[in-house]
Amino acid sequence: MWREWSGPTGVGSFRLPHELLAELSDTARELRLPVGLMATAAITQLLDQPADHIAALVDRADDARIHGRRSSRHPLTKQAKG
Questions:
Q1: Which of 26, 27, 74, 76 has the fewest Cβ atoms within 10 angstroms?
Q2: CA-based nearest residue to 14, from 6, 24, 5
Q3: CB-CB contact of 24 with 39 (8 Å)
């Protein structure tokens, strides 16, 4: 069931990965859609999922964050052979 909103909006402050914000911005520009409405649609879609599915997605996001931080601290280097 889709929701209806009365019109007033609020501002929330969340820390999101730069890469995710860039992807959201790029997609919004490509589709010519407002970023805020894309975020609203995505959050609404998420909240319509069962609790265990939401928890699994949060776990995946946390794993991606941890893996990304680890990778940025220890970049793979190639040794020149010669």
A1: 76
A2: 24
A3: yes
- The token pair that represents 53 in the structure block: 């599915």
Angle at 29 between CA 27 and CA 31, to 5 degrees: 65
pLDDT in tens, the chain (82 residues): 778 888 888 888 888 999 999 999 999 999 999 999 999 999 999 999 999 999 999 999 999 888 777 677 666 655 545 4
The span from the CA of 34 to the CA of 30, in Å, is: 11
By residue count, the chain amounts to 82
Query: Would you say the pTM of this structure is higher than 0.85?
Result: no
Which tokens go with 58? Answer: 């949060």
Query: How many whole angstroms separate alpha carbon 2 and alpha carbon 11?
Result: 21
